[in-house]
Amino acid sequence: MREKKLFLSSPTMHDKEMGFIQEAFDTNWVAPLGENVTKFEEELASYVGAGFGAALSSGTDAIFLALKLLGVQRGDIVFTTDLTFAATCNPIMYLGAVPVFLDSEEESWNMDPKVLRKAFDKYPKAKAVIVVNLYGTPAKLEEIRNICQEHHTPLIEDGAESLGAIYKGKQTGTFGDIGIFSFNGNKIITSSGGGMLVSDKEEYTKKAVFLATQAREPERHYEHKEVGYNFRMSNIVAGIGRGQLSYLDEHIQRKKGIYERYKQAFDSIWEIEMNPYLKDSKPNFWLSCMTIKEGCNVKPIDIMLALEEKNIESRPIWKPMHLQPVYKNKDFIKVTEKESIGGDIFCRGLCLPSDIKNTEEDMEEIIGVIKGFFS
Ligand SMILES: *Cc1c(COP(=O)(O)O)cnc(C)c1O
């Protein structure tokens, strides 16, 4: 077994991060707030082309506040992508609202606009929609946004996995009324942990910051008219984020290289397909994934175990929310009569090691293990 573990996607640090942290120490702006926070907000908003940003303690908090800003309350229906990480929909539950899970299409693995139309037929009064760009691959964002607008329903874009990805020339995270990003440990850039809420409406980011700092009214004494939260990002964390942001383009290039290396290696193997993306999109290729064609008797778990044996990390595809015990009583909408598209991708797919520190030799080893199943 190799001594050095090969990771799915671990933090990749450079030189600049430490500089921003050092500056925070030198000026004693370790806490509270400080220049790194405001600069990180400006720099990230400017990178994605959003008007404003609010730096928060996590992507999950950002989704929670986005729902709150849009007025989601107890009992409200919120449509969301079924094939995603639980962090997308858990905040709906924190508010006592009701998630309705929408099946995916096969071209990008994301929310199917046809399913969204069907969902609006069934629940015309839905209060909000959360669309996810899974594994860094843009959804059919324009179509989804248009459907939401037809129904006068606000859209939240969960760009936690898709920072830097582009759809029709526009950055993901900027298609909805509010977008959110995550800088958690294994995302394409990391601040060690944190999130950002972005919007073209300054009233949203201002209100987000207000709620995230205990909803303290602008009075000399401590005055509160609303229940607040402690969700603000620290100045140290923001320093790491600022440093990382300057390497985002480089990370995307390297992630893309990994995806293309796999694609080329598996080109001649009919049983393997790489995760697809739309022609008019540029994913950030956060995680490379593959599915095994129906009719082949190799199972994703066989490959995961063989990689694990060599100290190489891989993972299952996110298990769809409608199959999760905690969400089993929630509605799930799909267009096909057969099994759900998301359920099928979950059964036949896996996430491949996509760490940008893996070398060509490492890639050859990983690819060798996988190819061994299909000779
Ligand atoms: C990581 C992730 C989140 C949550 O972000 P955190 O910063 O970890 O709270 C939300 N949605 C998706 C799709 C994610 O992958």
Please give a structural write-up:
The chain has twelve helices and 15 strands. It is 35% helix and 14% strand. The two termini are 23 Å apart. The strands form three sheets. An eight-stranded mixed β-sheet has the order 1-9-8-5-4-2-3-14, sandwiched between helices. A four-stranded antiparallel β-sheet has the order 10-12-15-13. It is globular, with a radius of gyration of 21 Å. The relative contact order is 0.18. Helix 1 runs antiparallel to helix 8 (235-245), helix 2 (35-48) runs parallel beside helix 8 (235-245) and helix 3 (59-69) packs across helix 7 (202-212). The longest helix is centred in the C-terminal third of the chain and has 18 residues, at 248-265. By secondary structure, the protein is α/β, with parallel strands linked by helices. Bound molecules: pyridoxal-5'-phosphate.
In short:
β4 (128-132), α6 and β5 form a beta-alpha-beta unit.
Residue runs with pLDDT of under 50 for 5 or more positions? none
How far from one another are the termini? Answer: 23 Å
**Individual helix count:** 12
Helix content: 25-40%
The overall strand count is: 15
Order of strands, main sheet, comes to 1-9-8-5-4-2-3-14
Class computed from helices, strands and strand pairing:
alpha/beta
Question: What attributes does this structure have?
Answer:
375 residues, alpha/beta, eight-stranded mixed β-sheet, 12 helices, binds pyridoxal-5'-phosphate
SSE order and pairing:
Elements: H1 16-26, H2 35-48, E1 52-56, H3 59-69, E2 77-81, H4 90-94, E3 98-102, H5 113-122, E4 128-132, H6 141-150, E5 155-158, E6 166-167, E7 170-171, E8 178-182, E9 195-199, H7 202-212, H8 235-245, H9 248-265, E10 272-274, E11 281-282, E12 289-292, H10 300-309, E13 315-316, E14 332-333, H11 341-348, E15 349-351, H12 360-371
Parallel strand pairs: 2-3, 2-4, 3-14, 4-5, 5-8
Antiparallel strand pairs: 1-9, 6-7, 6-11, 8-9, 10-12, 12-15, 13-15
Helix pairs in contact: 1-8, 2-8, 3-7
